[in-house]
Specification:
mainly alpha; 2 helices
Length: 58
């Protein structure tokens, strides 16, 4: 910022989680298992904004 004169841009606390979600899932799974819990895989939820609700599909 000082050298190049660019403005600081906050990427957010979850930037790296969103950047590589598979790695985040693996890390969280290991952490949960270290606490003595077992995760059970389930079907992934579909984001509401990605579902096509129109009758003709357009």
């Amino acid at each position: 910022m000082l050298r190049d004169g660019v403005i600081y841009r906050e990427l957010g606390g979850d930037y790296f989680d969103k950047l590589n979600p598979a790695r985040t899932l693996r890390k969280l799974s290991r952490r949960v298992e270290k606490l003595g819990y077992q995760l059970m895989p389930t079907q992934a939820a579909v984001a509401p904004h990605s579902v096509d609700t129109s009758p003709d599909g357009s």
